[in-house]
Amino acid sequence: MTHVDPARRVRDPTLQRVWEQMGRPARCRVVGGWVRDRVLGRATGDLDLSFEGDAEAAAEPATTLAAALGTRAHLLGTAPHQVWRIDAPELTIELWPMGDLDHESDMARRDYACNALSWELPDGPLQDLVGGLADLRDQRLRAVSRSNLEDDPVRLLRAPRFLAQLEDFDLDERTAGWIRGLAPRLAAAPRERVGRELRTLLASAAPSRGLRWCLDLGLFRHAAPPGQLVDEPWLREHLNATDRLRGADAGASTIAGLAFLLRSWGVPSPGRLSAYAWPQTERDTALRAARFLDEASAVVDAPPADRRELAWRAGAAFPAVLVMANAIDPDNPGWRRWRRQWQQSSAALTHPRPLLSGTEIAGIAGIEPGPDLGALIAALTRAQVRCEVRTRSGAVRFIRSKVRSGDEFSPRP
Fold it and tell me: Who has greater pLDDT, 2 or 24?
């Protein structure tokens, strides 16, 4: 780290403005990631503020600040562990009441020393009670104490997340030993918070590094749903692919990263993932992409009809399948060819225009509405997607042929 006065780095017009918008409260400190990142010269949009007293004491500055930012403050958690959260367009602010703790005790209970720095508003000083500045200088991630990790097992997972974000940092050897010994405790940690840490790790500058540390520290299997069969060898083989995901479209990249994680977890059922509290559409699309990844790798060099069918079956998840598979096998030109096919025909593949209505198909086949009719419609759609049927007359012949042959109507699942 370039030698610059740390206090000079932390002093920021944003802090002055926030303090004034809160009504200039006394004894308010900026703590945690904001101070760490500013000392490192990194941009950050997350601001944690600590207040003396309880959540009620922080209510007025929280609501005053939220109003000034054109939004609302939300009280999260349950007493005595409550926090006021404000989501503004370019800044996420959390106001943490310290309760009965004093400032020194508050810093001593932090997870890692580099996160135990504080800046008293509005003009400082910058305080370092546990050697965090030395750790930043030496590019070291070091836990404040073993008991702090033990008290909150989610902090174990923060180490790989920070190492994915801070690419030049190394993990303190003693801290690594503590985490390995405590790793099984992560299995009992709230899945919502685990999911948030994993999602942040996957969006970091070096997700492969974070995932590798998850594996090496014995955390990865404990972050998965309880009892889930985890495919750690597959993950180790394809770790570097996670870094290549970042070059794709932002939406597909986010879903592909989550799909990569779910494939490593052996593609759990949707019900086993609900506790992670990921956005439902994102979770379901990623899960579908994870299911199709291995099949896509087998089909990429197959005839166009097979590729069209897989894209149809994957539906809205197919862009994430392409992104993930291309990241795993970037030298295969088949992915570019398949991407062009998708770009030219995505609407026809995901929502092909019916050649016959359901009523027409029922009349031709001589069947009543029900599962058999639905299966026959799906079989015709599959044939249409594969370009085996292109016209209404061809569709009529297809239906009659299916009925005469007595074949199963349903397409592949």
Answer: 24
Buried b (16+ CB within 10 A) or exposed e, 94-112: bbbbbbeeebeebbeebbb
Say how many C-beta atoms besides its own lie within 10 A of residue 298's C-beta.
10
Q: Give the three-class secondary structure for 303.
A: coil
Q: What is the pLDDT of residues 359-392, one digit of tens each?
A: 999 999 998 999 989 999 999 999 999 999 999 9
d(CA 393, CA 229) in angstroms, rounded, equals 49
Neighbouring-strand partners of residue 170 = 140
Q: Which residues pair with 66 in a beta bridge?
A: none
Instruction: Tell me the pLDDT band of 247, cut-offs 50, 70 and 90.
Output: low
Quote the percentage of the chain above a pLDDT of 90: 74
Cα 298 to Cα 140, 183, 222, 340, 387, distances in angstroms: 43, 36, 30, 18, 21
- Side chain identity at residue 63, one-letter code: T
Tokens standing for residue 372: 């058999």
Indicate if the pLDDT at residue 407 is higher than 80: no
Give me the mean pLDDT over the 133-152 stretch: 96
And the tokens for 238? 């394809």
Determine whether 123 is exposed, middle or buried from the number of CB atoms within 10 Å of its CB (0-12, 13-18, 19+).
exposed
For residues 350 and 315, give the distance between their C-alpha atoms in angstroms, rounded to a whole number. 5
